[in-house]
Amino acid sequence: MPEAASASFSARADSSLAVSWPMRVRDPRLGLIERWLRYAVPGILAVFLACLVGLAALHIQGQRAEILAGAKAEVEGFARLAARAIVPSAGKASDLRVLMPESERHLGRRLLLVRPDTRIAAAHPPLPSDATTLAQVLGDSEPLSGLGERAGAMALDLPGGESVLAAIHSLPDGAGQVAVLQPIEPLMRGWSARARDQIVLVGAAILVIVGVGLAYGLQSRQATRADRAREQIRGRLETALRRGACGLWDWDIARGRIYWSDSMYALLGYQRQHEYLSFGAVNALVHPDDGDLYSLARGLAAAQTCVDHAFRMRGADGAYVWLRARAEVMPDATDGGRHLVGIATDITEQRALEETNAASDMRLRDAVEAISEAFVLWDTGNRLVLCNSKFRHLHALSPEDAQSGRSYTDVMGRGVLPQVRRESPEAGLALTDMAARTFEAELTDGRWLQISERRTKDGGYVSVGTDITSLKRHQEQLQASERELIETVKDLKRSRRTLELQTQQLADLAERYLDQKAAAEAASQAKSEFLANMSHELRTPLNAIIGFADVMENAVLGPLGTPRYTEYCRDIRESGSHLLSMIDDILNMARLEARRVRLNPRPIPAEAAVASALGLVEAAARDKGIALGVDVQPGIELLADPSAMQQILANLVQNAVKFTPAGGRVAVRVRRAGASTHLFVEDSGIGIPRADLARLGRPFTQVEAQMTRSHKGSGLGLAITRSMVELHGGSLRIRSEETVGTVVLVRLPAPAAEQKEQPGRAAGTKREAVRPGARRSAAA
After folding, report:
1. Which of 66, 89, 249, 769 has its Cα between 20 and 30 A from that of 514?
2. According to the UniProt record, where is the region Disordered (predicted)?
């Protein structure tokens, strides 16, 4: 199941949208209970607070009553014990002190010994001096004196305002009474602290419960607003999904259950029956040819986070619907699991349109491929849209090189542009129209193409190349036949008038030809003899001049006396050598014109011949700082006379070094080209003007002007070289540009197989020299 690296829609598992769908309340009774609880909980909290306050108050009051009851019982018991322990006849304050020791428990307690006449006989602690009777201590309205022991312990308010617990018990034999007074305030100190702590605790609980109630109310109100907003958002999202033919998926990977939105059910025509769908139920709806959800689950288990997949699912009517699912794995903050959340879009119409477009595109490509012309279509950005095999064959392109979407520069850079010999516009077509043009081009291989280029409406252009070679040849044949017919008619018309004159002229011409031929042969013989005699006459003194100048330059017989004489001798020797070389060139030219040169061509190694020629100019190149380069393919042989080939290469490389400035380069390359061998001599010299290329190779011709000549020479070297090359059955071409350099191409026939196997037979083949210019040579 293919995956993709992006998802178009996803929702976080802890967002309001993701939580709202699975937690929607579907039972109305639960919704009613939830609304009732929102109002009942605050009331319950108020009742609880009231009960809590009441119970706390009752508890505090009960503790006070319990403390007083215990204190009364203790005071009454103490009074009874004191009455039994006091001896009436000896009752004193010291005895009372013994009965009531100092203790925190009896803090403030007072013990009184009362006589039968209600006067106080002793007290501990002592009373003020003015308090002598029990009525003065307890007050006039106290009931203890009348009730006695029957009253038990009673709470009284003393005249000073102090609240006490008082109890009276009679002594034996009517000897008097014992009264015990216990202040209430010391007894209540512990109770007050405990009551205060309980009040603080209850108050804190009340604050917490009130805060919880307020928070609950705010949360309930916020939840109500959130539910309304959630329902609005859910409704809007469902509407958007339904209108966009989309359905939302929420796949709980850990539990193996899938949630679908209502729009997804509507998209497939199903009715929702359960909140969630099982993994197997959804997988059963997927078309078997489009994979299954198990492979997707395995990919998700392997840390895949995004899904982008197109597949088919079976609808309620049994038909399959094309869907494109885009989803992303999101963590669930509630349970820590992972959910695959995304949307599935109905692309059935898109897939049908793509299939239709693919079929149309295939038919179009078949139609373009079937046409006999070279066809190519470029878009507005000069990127390739479509081409056929004829176009690829024309430009030597492979199918990988001519892929759709590549730029024009990239495609044409991978191919080979056909060499065009000439172009001609099609008759009757205005070439000023920039939207379209048609022209005819003749290729170097002899083929003719009619190329039609048209602009498309989107800004691109289409080009169609039609092979019209047969049509052009037929047209040329018709034109030639027409011209021949016209010339024939003219010749027939003139033939009658010129027939008689031609007879007489032929006779005169024959006689004049014989005379001129004899004069030319005599002149040529005289020139050859003159040149031979002159060469002998010039060589003899020149050899003496060169020899004696060399002897004097090297001071063989002793010093000359002045160093400047040595320089003069070197100048004499160099001038003599230059003059001798010019005489040799003139003699060679004369021998070529007199057809006295005999060649013995045989296969010779190209590497050896080039190396020998370059050895002659190494010193001169080194002095000028010229770089010499050799590029000869191994195993190439030249079919030529060794000495003639040596002279050809020597003349070419010497000229290249001579006309190349210091710091330049000279290179010699040899290549095999079919039945010929091409020898290139390239230099980065001063170059030759285009207008002077036609004069090169003529005897005694130099390109430089007479007043601006900077290089010595007779002007015969290139003429001799051209004659030698033509004598071998080859040709010499020159291509040059001023300030850029010159390239000289020597084309020689390649040795045949039998000549390589039997070099002796090749050695027996001889050629006679021809006059320079007898064969046509082109300079480019």
Report:
1. 769
2. 750-780
Distance of alpha carbon 196 from alpha carbon 695, whole angstroms: 134
CA–CA gap between residue 337 and residue 335 (Å, rounded): 6
Predicted local distance difference test score (pLDDT) of residue 463:
82
Structure tokens at 711: 């290089």
Asked whether the beta carbons of 388 and 374 are under 8 A apart, the reply is yes
Strands 767-768 and 598-599, sheet pairing: antiparallel
The sign one gets for the Cα dihedral 258, 264, 266, 270 is negative
Looking from the CA of 558 toward its CB, the CA atoms found within 13 Å total 1
Shortest CA distance to 339 belongs to which of 739, 742, 17? 17
Q: How far apart are CA 333 and CA 727, in angstroms?
A: 97
Which ranges in 456-593 belong to alpha helices (H)?
A: 469-554, 563-593
For residue 107, give the nearest of 9, 196, 188 by alpha carbon: 188
Residue 167: helix, strand or coil by DSSP?
A: strand
Query: Residue 559: is the preceding peptide bond cis (ω within 30°)?
Result: no
Indicate the length of the chain as a whole number. Answer: 780
**Strand boundaries in 684-762, DSSP class E:** 731-737, 741-749
Give the C-alpha separation, 370 to 358, whole Å. 18
What token pair was written down for 555?
């001071």
C-alpha span between 272 and 378 (Å, rounded): 53
State how far the Cα of 709 lies from the Cα of 715, in Å rounded to an integer: 12
Edge-to-edge order in the sheet of strand 277-278: 277-278, 257-260, 246-252, 338-346, 320-331, 306-314
User: Per-block average pLDDT, block size 10, for the chain (780 residues)?
Assistant: 32 35 54 76 85 89 86 84 69 60 67 81 79 77 70 80 84 80 82 86 88 84 82 80 81 83 85 84 85 74 75 88 85 76 85 84 82 84 85 81 84 73 51 62 75 81 80 83 85 77 79 80 69 65 75 76 77 73 66 66 88 86 89 86 84 88 91 88 86 65 45 64 82 86 89 58 43 33
On whether the CB atoms of residues 184 and 155 are closer than 8 A, the answer is yes
**How far, in Å, are 232, 400, 469, 590 from residue 389 at the CA level?**
61, 12, 19, 58
The DSSP secondary structure of 555-624, one letter per residue, reads TSSS--SSHHHHHHHHHHHHHHHHHHHHHHHHHHHHHHHTT--EE--EEEEHHHHHHHHHHTTHHHHHHH
Q: Report the alpha-carbon distance of residue 283 to residue 306 in Å, rounded.
A: 19
At 12 the pLDDT is 33
CA distances to 362, 657, 689, 736 from 686, in Å: 58, 11, 10, 9
Q: How far apart are CA 481 and CA 388, in angstroms?
A: 38
Beta strand 627-632 with 665-673: parallel, antiparallel or unpaired? parallel
* Cα-only R_g, the chain: 66
Q: What's the confidence (pLDDT) of residue 669? A: 92
Burial of 167 (0-12, 13-18, 19+ CB in 10 A): buried
Strands 374-378 and 461-467 turn out to be antiparallel
pLDDT at 114: 82
- Alpha carbon distance 738, 409 (integer Å): 30
What type of residue sits at position 429?
Answer: L
Give the span between the Cα atoms of 651 and 257, in whole angstroms. 93
Is 364 in contact with 354 (CB distance < 8 Å)? no
Instruction: Specify whether the CB–CB gap between 79 and 164 falls below 8 A.
Output: no
- Locate 326 and state its tokens: 């885009």
Q: How far is it, in rounded angstroms, from Cα 754 to Cα 756?
A: 5
Q: Which residues of 297-317 are buried (b: 16+ CB within 10 A; e: fewer)?
A: bebbeeeebbbbbbbbbeeee
Residue with tokens 């010999």: 421
